[in-house]
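User: Can you predict the 3D structure of Lipid A export ATP-binding/permease protein MsbA? Sequence below.
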Amino acid sequence: MRFRRIARRQAAKPDDANPPITRGGLSVFRRLLGYVRPYWRWMTVAVVALIISSLLGLVLPLVVRNLVDFAFVNDDVADLNRVTLGLLAVFIFQSLFTFIQQMALANAGERAVADIRIDVFTHLQELPLSFYAERRTGELVSRVTNDVALLQQSMTWNLVILLRQIITIIGAAALLFWLDWRLTLLILLVVPVITLTMVWLGGRIRDASVAVQDSLAEIANSAEETTRGVRIVKSFAREPYEIGRFTTRVMDLYHAAMRRARINAMLAPLIGLIASITITGILYYGGSQVIAGNLSPGDLIAYLIYTVMVASPIAIMADLYGQFQAAIGASQRLFELLDRPSEIVEQPDARPLPLVAGEVVFQDVGFHYTTAIDVLDDVSFRARPGQLIALVGPSGAGKSTLVNLIPRFYDPVGGRITIDGNDVRAVTLKSLREQIGIVPQETILFSGSVYDNIRYGRLEATRAEIEAAAMAANAHTFIVEDLEHGYETAVGEHGVKLSGGQRQRIAIARAILKDPRILILDEATSSLDSESESLVQDALERLMRGRTSFVIAHRLSTVLNADWILVMNKGRIVEQGTHATLLLNPDGLYARLYNRQFAIA
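Assistant: Sure. Here are the predicted C-alpha cells for Lipid A export ATP-binding/permease protein MsbA:
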C-alpha cells in the first residue's frame, strides 16, 4: 500500500519559517482535511454510498404512512404485500451501500492517520538535539501513540456516523417540510438553542481533552524513565517512592478524565431533553390537527418518525461533537509538534560534501544554547588530516559541545567551521554526517540482533564486511563463542543482554563499517573494566588509524600519545600543544590536571 505522503505533506505542513499558531478548531480541522485530501477518490466513493444508504433509510416512515393510510385502513392485502417486498429490497440495498461506504471511508481515514503518524515521526527525526534537551521521551512517545490513536477513531468510524447523521437530518427535514411546513417551523425554533449548547460545552470538552492527553504524556514519561532506570530504583530501594509518584500521575489523569466525562455526560442529555420537549409539543399539536381532520393519522405517524429521525441524530451528533472536540485537542498537540521549526536546516544551494581528507578548522567559533551564557567563546584551531586531537578539561568546559558542532548537531552562533575548506553549513547534512563517525560514552544499541546493530553503520554492507568490521573491533570472538545465536543473537532493549565492553565493541564495529574520514570518541572507555578497556582501546586504535580523530577524555593516560591536545576551560581553549610541551608549563591547567591524576607533587 503506497501512501501519498509527499504531496500531502507539502500541502498540509506549514512553512517552517513562519509556522502558524494552531489554536482554533476550524483551523485544526482544515489541516486535518489536508491529510484526507490525497485520498479523495475513496472519499468520493464513501460519500456517494453514504448518501444512497442514508436516503434509503428515509423511506421507512413513508412505508409506515402507506401501511396506516392504505393497507390497514382499506384492509388491502395486495398493498401489504407490495409494501413488504419493497421494504425488504430497500433494506438489502441499504446494507450493501452501508458496507461500501464504511470500507471506503475507513480506507481513506486509516491512510490519513498513518500519514499523520509518519509525518510526526519524520519531523521528530529532523529536529535538532536542542529540541530533545527540552522534551521528555515519554511525552514525545505519547504524542505519536495516544494523540494519534484519539484521531484514528474520529477520522474513521466517527466520521462515518457524523456524515450519516447529517444526511439523515437534511433528508428528514426536507420531508418534514413536505408533510407539514407549519410543524417544521416549530422544530426550527429550537435549532439555535441546540447549537449554542453544543458550542458552549464543546469548547470545555476540548480543553478538558488537552488536559487528559497531557496527563497521559506524564504517565508515559514516568513509566519510560522508571523502566530505563530500574537498576537505580532498586539499588536505592525507591520502589515505594516511584509507585507513589506514578500513582499521583495516574490520579491526575483520573481527575482530568472525570472532568471531561462530566462535561461529555451533560452534552447528550441536554440535547436529548430539548429534542424530547420538541417532540412532545409536535405530538400535542399534530394530534389536535388529526382530531380536527386537517392531518391523517398516517401523516402524523410519519411526521413523528421523521422528527425522531432528526432528533436522534442531533443527540448522536452532540456526543460525536464532544469526541471531535477531544480529537481537536489531540490534533493541536500534534500540530504544535509539526510546527516546531528545525534549527538545523540546509541552505537552498547546499551541495554534497566530496570525499574529504579530514582537515577540520574552527575559526572564532562561538556558541550558546537558549540562554545568553556562552558555552563556547572564540574557539579557533586546526586539525590536520589523520591527526589525533585530544580534548581535555574539567566537566562543563564545552568539550562535548565543541565536537557536536562538527556534524551540525548544533550550529555556532558566531564564526565558522570548515572541513577541507568547505563550510559545514554550505553542504548537505547527509553528505556531511556520512563522513563522520561517533562512538559515545553511553553506547546506544537498538533492539534487534548483533548483526543488525553492526549493519546500521552501512546498510548495504555484505555479511563478510560486517564480520570483518567485528573482527577489527575485537568483537567477532565473543559474538561467535559467547552468544547463543552468534550474530543473530537479540541484544535486548538498549543492548541490555550484553556487557558494557561488548556493547562498546559492537558500537566500534558499527563505526568501522561506516568507514568515516572523521572520528569522534566521547569518553569511549571511561566506564569499562581493565580487561574490556584493553580490548576496546586496541579496537579504537585500529579504528583511528588514518582518520582525523577527536577524543574527549578525562583520564589523561588515554591521550598521552595524541598529536595535539586542546585544553578547555569555561568554553575557551586555554592551552594547546603536545603532552610534552604542555607539561613544560607547571602552572598551566593541563599540568595541574596531570599531576592531580598521577599524584605527582
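Confidence is low (pLDDT under 50) at residues 1-23. The longest helix spans residues 239-291.
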